[in-house]
Write a structure and sequence with these properties.
Blueprint (H helix, E strand, L loop, with lengths): L14 H11 L13 H13 L4 E6 L8 E6 L8 E7 L6 H15 L6 H13 E6 L4 H10 L43 H13 L3 E5 L6 E2 L7 E2 L2 E2 L2 E2 L6
Parallel strand pairs: 3-4, 3-5
Antiparallel strand pairs: 1-2, 2-4, 6-9, 7-8
Helix pairs in contact: 2-3
The chain binds zinc ion.
Length: about 240
């Protein structure tokens, strides 16, 4: 499969699938949207960018039941393979609503950079000419919907009570029975959750040069493997962000 092919073999990767999913899953009104988009409005925002002429596709990646589908946004895909490919995750933790806002803002900036900032506009044009981006704005879609509908604003885990950020094969630790650790429950085994399986398989097929997982609540930018400053005997630096989400 070439890099410009659809990014997942798990189920249909079609915008129409996403729309069907959205109409079923996002039927309810959500949180007070004074400061945040509801999930429904968030994806409407992406659709509006496409309607205005941005080269953007809304896709759905499914693992098994349709409820396990998670949406993605593909930017600047073309027939020829892109020189650079970036995979970006947002909303892995349900309560981190601001990260999904970041995804929409990023897409908006890349689609329609402010021309009053010619340097930025020029950089965006160069990026669009050579790169393809695949964004997952709401990795933990079911968890996010629980936050919206139930006001469960501290929820971190997915619908199965698993912390998706602990459900990868790297640095996997067996689950603890401690109630204190319920919000960091790694699941029964690596990739036990549909969300991480979708992301794993998508990454294998999309083969990104750049991978970024966006979180909130900590003013840090961590280099791999993130859980430790040591890897293969080398010391990695933790770079603190100079902006605040
Ligand atoms: Zn997080």
């Amino acid at each position: 499969m070439t890099p410009s092919s659809p990014p997942s073999r798990l189920g249909a990767v079609l915008s129409v699938t996403f729309l069907l999913l959205a109409s079923r899953v996002l039927a309810d009104d959500a949180i007070d949207t004074t400061n945040y988009h509801s999930t429904r409005d968030l994806f409407s925002g992406f659709q509006e960018l496409a309607a205005k002429g941005c080269q953007l596709q809304l896709l759905a990646h499914c693992a098994g039941e349709s409820e396990d589908c998670i949406p993605s946004v593909r930017l600047f895909s073309s027939a020829r393979p892109a020189k650079h490919r970036a995979l970006l995750l947002f909303g892995e933790h349900a309560r981190e609503l601001i990260t999904t806002e970041t995804a929409l803002q990023l897409a908006s900036l890349l689609c329609f950079p402010a021309e009053e900032d010619p340097e930025l506009a020029s950089a965006v044009r160069r990026l669009r000419a050579s790169a393809e981006l695949l964004l997952f704005p709401a990795v933990n879609l079911q968890g996010r919907l629980r936050v919206e509908r139930n006001g469960d604003y501290c929820l971190r885990v997915n619908k199965n009570g698993v912390d998706l950020n602990r459900n990868w094969a790297e640095h996997f630790a067996p689950p603890s029975s401690s109630a204190d650790e319920a919000q960091v429950n790694p699941g029964s085994s690596p990739f036990s959750e549909p969300e991480t399986r979708v992301l794993r398989d998508t990454a294998h097929e999309f083969r990104p040069d750049v991978f970024v997982s966006v979180h909130s609540g900590s003013l840090g930018m961590f280099t791999p493997p993130a859980f430790s400053a040591e890897v293969r005997g080398r010391s990695l630096r933790v770079v603190f962000l100079f902006f605040v989400l």
